[in-house]
Structure formats: C-alpha cells, structure tokens
Amino acid sequence: MTNTAAQDGANVVRRLREFYRKRRETEVFAPVNFNALVQQAVSLTEPKWKGQAQANAVTIAIQTDLQEIRAVAGNEADLREILSNLIFNAVDAMPAGGTITLRTRGETSKWSWRSMTREPA
After folding, report:
1. Cβ-contact 102, 65 below 8 angstroms
2. Which end of the chain is more exposed for a tag (fewer CB within 10 A), N or C?
3. What average pLDDT is seen over the chain?
4. Is the pLDDT of residue 18 over 70?
5. Spatial CA neighbour of 44 closest among 95, 8, 92
6. Burial profile 7-21: b = 16 or more Cβ within 10 angstroms, e = fewer
C-alpha cells in the first residue's frame, strides 16, 4: 500500500506539472477494475479518517457493497484519488460520526456509482 500511495503521489505531481496542457485526443485509457479501486481507496485513507474520528471521540465506519461491474476505461491513479477525496469529504461532513456506504451497481451495458450515504452512529 505504501508503494501505491507513493506512486499516486508521483502521478499527482506529474499532473500538476501538466495542468496547463490538455490531454491528447490519442491518449488511451486502460481497463480498470473499479471495485478494486474502491477497496484500495478505503484501505489507503483509513489511517487518516480513523485517526481523525478517534481524535474527535466519534465512530466512523465504512461499508462496501460492491456488485460485479464491467471494467471502466480510465487512469487508476486519477480514479483512486477521486475516490479518496470523496471519502475524506464524506468524513468531514460527519462530525458526529456515522457510516459511509460505498456501492457499485452494474446496469445493463453501463456502470454506475451510487452516492455515499450518511447514517447516524
């Protein structure tokens, strides 16, 4: 996990350097297992959100409800960063604690991301 986080950090720095430049139309995205990215984002962010919750004397839990979905075309590091930011934003929006549920659902020929839900602790 540390290696993955370091690689993601390097990708963020690289993207910041390229911020002013548009993506090339020829850029090819690889198939990505989105459910695996959800699980990785939860694992990578857990030390921060769990520590933040403990420091505030509240309980925050993250549940996953991941159905089989097709691979999506994208950049793994970018998608993992987006998921991590969503998790951190959800934690920040729950000062009294609660449960964050991450769900994926396959719908015919497309995939969908269902929003995170807050439930009282």
Report:
1. yes
2. N
3. 80
4. no
5. 8
6. ebeebeeeeeeeeee
Backbone angles phi, psi at 62, to 5 degrees: -120, 125
Threshold 0.70, pTM exceeds: no
Measured CA to CA, the distance from residue 61 to residue 82 in angstroms comes to 19
Under a CB-based contact definition with an 8 Å cutoff, are residues 94 and 121 in contact? no
Kind and range of the H or E run holding 64: strand 60-66
Could you give the percent of the chain with pLDDT greater than 70?
65
Residue 88: count of CB within 10 angstroms of its CB: 15
Mean pLDDT of 38-60: 93
Q: Label residue 12 by pLDDT band (50, 70, 90).
A: low
Would you state the structure tokens that stand for residue 94, as one six-digit string?
């729950």
